[in-house]
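User: what does the whole thing look like in 3D?
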Amino acid sequence: MEFVQNFPCISIMLCLFAGIISSGLRDRAAMLVNTGLLLINTVLSACTLLYTLSTGEAFVYVMGQFPAPWGNEIRAGVLEALMALFFCIIMLLSLFGGRHKLLQGVEKGKVYLYYVLMDLLLSSLLALVYTNDMFTAYVFVEINTISACGLIMIRQNGRTIEAAVRYMIMSLLGSGMLLLGLCMLYDLTGHLLMSNLKESVALIVAEGEYTIPLIVSIVLMSVGLCIKSALFPFHAWLPDAYGYSTVSSAAILSSLVSKGYIFLLIKIIYRVIGFDIYRSTRIIDILFVFGLMGMIFGSLSAIRENDIRRMIAFSSVAQIGYIYMGFGMGTEAGMTASVFHILSHAATKSLLFIAAVGLTDVSGRNRQFVELTGAGYRNRWAGVAFTVGSLSMVGVPLFSGFISKLLFSQAAVQNHAKMLPALIVLGISTILNAIYFMKTVIRIYTPVDETAYPSVSFKDMRLYAVVLVAFILLNVTLGISSQPVVDMIQQGLAMFA
Amino acid sequence: MGTNLLVNYGEAVAMILFGIGFGNLLLQPNLIKKIIGLNIMDTAIYLFLAEKGYIKGRVAPIVANGVQSMEAYINPIPSGLVLTGIVVSVSVSALMLALTIRLYRRYHTLDLDEISKRLRKEGL
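Assistant: Here's the predicted 3D structure for the full assembly of 621 residues, as structure tokens:
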């Protein structure tokens, strides 16, 4: 066994231990541990990615001494390593970008708790990405939920606690359904490892017996994960949770936490049920319809919103809708587009959240649009970054959002039955996106003659400006050289089968 | 169909309980009742697992009196899953209760809708 094959397990373990150690450290030390952890994990994931790319196949890492049908396993292929690498980078940038707000918003002496939660969140995300065992996935889903709830309420006011309660309630409904679904699947098949499950599920379908319990269990798992990742009708908790928590939390919740659940659903579709069986159950049609509805209604709510943070939050609902629409196409191309959109949305949405906080800070911390007039001149870096993020969301070429829209429309053209609704809704949603994002961009670049608010320059916010530049570069890189990434995604999806 | 339901009455009860818990967690405005619903929901799943994992006439897989035949024991994994699940649900309930205490101290009510109404009035 190559040494690199230990890396996925090491990175998960490192996160868990860092979380435990940080709980006994002071604020600053915990922050340094967290930064070091993220850097190490970035390197480890990059090594894993290079290794899987060079061997061209996924590898399985056996946890403990028990072989396949009994023991627990980790499995890493190109897509898993790519996701892990991306999650680490986005988390690192989001934490750096929101650090000054964190220190302002959280009581002194409690900041270390934030980093403890962050370490645990990263461990659960990596475990969700790498695990090959359904019950381990469930346990880490719960760890993810708990730490995400902590991230929301680390800034203590009534609004965030209420948002955290609502978030918990919806999440618990989702994980209850996930657990029931996977218990039923376990009863049907007698396995918990994904590769064994897939064989047994194929047998069940071939025999033609127990198809109804199988479908019920698939539905329960899919709906559970849809609730947790805030697909359209289940998004009521989202604007408050993203809108009032501290800015790093909002960026991480929208770009990583919900994506972890979606990635788990992709793994279930490919590695547990099998893509063809999943498609034949017709659940994807339901996902498709709700995805389309989410794209429209999320954008409509965003247009009506008068608060910049909540507007970006509602835009997330629309973007999650895009991802589920890609699932709903039921083709390889649609899935590739969805996975690419996971990456592109993660890069763009965290950029928008971080940039928005720079704009509100130079407007007396008011988040209403009226107060933001001319904010792009007072904080030029944030203004440019927000504009880049908006253009990417709308789907202007050069930026990552364009590529995902392009991939979605290509996927739609390949599927005759769903081409028309998908293309029409894509068009409408792009126009709606343009309405609310361009409205904001025009607002922040409207000159005002005299203003009560001060301007900031590069010297006041070095770290923040560097983070924004890094985000912009990430976005443009995804937009310009998208083909290697798309190739990796296709290779990774092929490894899933 | 009907006979299966009679034989598998334990699973049927578990599903009914799951529905009751799910509905309570989703629909009750009172936070404590929501948490009770959460616990009913989780416990129903454990009942389901325990019911599925038990085979009549067999015992837990602890070798006693030198009997080593596989026919004498049940599969330990469902019981293990129940234990893991209990740990998870205990920690989640504790977190929910802590949040409830926070909200109650601030607003002196357990009604989530009422709290939302007041928050909107505060305009925070």
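In plain terms: The mean pLDDT of chain B is 89. The interface with chain A takes residues 18, 21-22, 25-26, 31, 34, 38, 41-42, 45, 48-49, 52, 77-78, 81, 84-85, 88, 91-92, 95-96, 99-100, 102-103, 106-107, 112, 115-116, 118-119, 122, 124 of chain B (CB under 8 Å).
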